[in-house]
Amino acid sequence: MTRIALKSSVLAHNDAIAGRLRARLHERGTVCLNIIGSPGSGKTTLLEAVLPQLAERFRCGVVEGDVATDNDMRRIVTLGIPAVQIETGGSCHLTAESVERALGDLSGGLDLLVIENVGNLICTVAYDLGEDDRIVVVSIAEGEDKPLKYPSAFVSANTVAVTKTDLEPYVDARVEIMVRNALSCNPGLRIFPLSAKTGEGLGAFVGYIAGKLTNR
Amino acid sequence: MTRIALKSSVLAHNDAIAGRLRARLHERGTVCLNIIGSPGSGKTTLLEAVLPQLAERFRCGVVEGDVATDNDMRRIVTLGIPAVQIETGGSCHLTAESVERALGDLSGGLDLLVIENVGNLICTVAYDLGEDDRIVVVSIAEGEDKPLKYPSAFVSANTVAVTKTDLEPYVDARVEIMVRNALSCNPGLRIFPLSAKTGEGLGAFVGYIAGKLTNR
Question: Is B2 on the interface with A (CB under 8 A)?
Answer without folding.
Answer: yes
